[in-house]
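Reviewers of the previous submission asked for a worked example of the structure-prediction workflow described in the proposal, so we include one complete record here. The input consisted solely of the amino acid sequence. No template or homolog information was supplied to the procedure at any stage.
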Amino acid sequence: MKTAAIQMRSGTDVAANIAAASTLVRAAAKNGAAFIATPEMTHLLQRDPVALRGAVRTMDEDLGVKAFSDLATDLSVNLLIGSLAILREDGKIANRSLLFAPDGRLTAHYDKIHLFEAALSKSETYREADSYAAGTKAVTASAGGFRLGLSICYDLRFPALYGGYARDEVELISAPAAFTVGTGKAHWETLLRARAIETGAYVIAPAQGGHHEDGRKTWGRSAIIAPWGDVIARLDNNEPGFISAEIDKAKVTQARARIPAWRGGAS
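From that input alone, the workflow returned the following structure tokens.
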């Protein structure tokens, strides 16, 4: 299956972000991708909690949910929207991945379990839990005949989640992200390769990149990693665009046969 990872520079205008994502998804589909993944916070990157609260909508009301469902149908692709900020029924906000089938059906969703918390400097601190509610369960789904395990960004630092996916024998893991420049430069590719190696699965990691309207700066460098830990596609910058790569179940089987550590789960 040919896969594609979309790299974006999402801002604070939901409609503009949906349009930008759709353009890149269409380009990736035209290039032959049957499974396409977008980054974390595809349609809204907003650090200000008041502005965020004013912009979020429920699943039924969110503009992106319908737009991306229609897009998957129009292109007949498996479309993973890395995440959207979604207003839950309890009034809390979820950082939520959404998987659409080629007929537009929402086949799975995953709420980010591990919320980002970091103090990178005196002027750069993050506490995602101030605005978002954490998810409580891992999610697996089927996409294009591959068993998929869903995760988002900061989840990458918590191997136990991926140990569960290894035991569930997933063949592909999604890791959409909006890594900071500092953490991205230090840890991004290392973490992606580690998750692939320890699970014997492919990892697809579409990322946000560049200087965003809300003042945030993100690392970009979207990547697709093979089960042996090889980087088989990479964007070497933080500019919007996409990468693509063929993935093959036989490579998963081969990696797991060579080193069967995945049977015990990642640790």
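Helices lie at 14-30, 49-55, 63-75, 159-167, 181-199, 249-258. We consider this example representative of the routine output the project will generate in years two and three.
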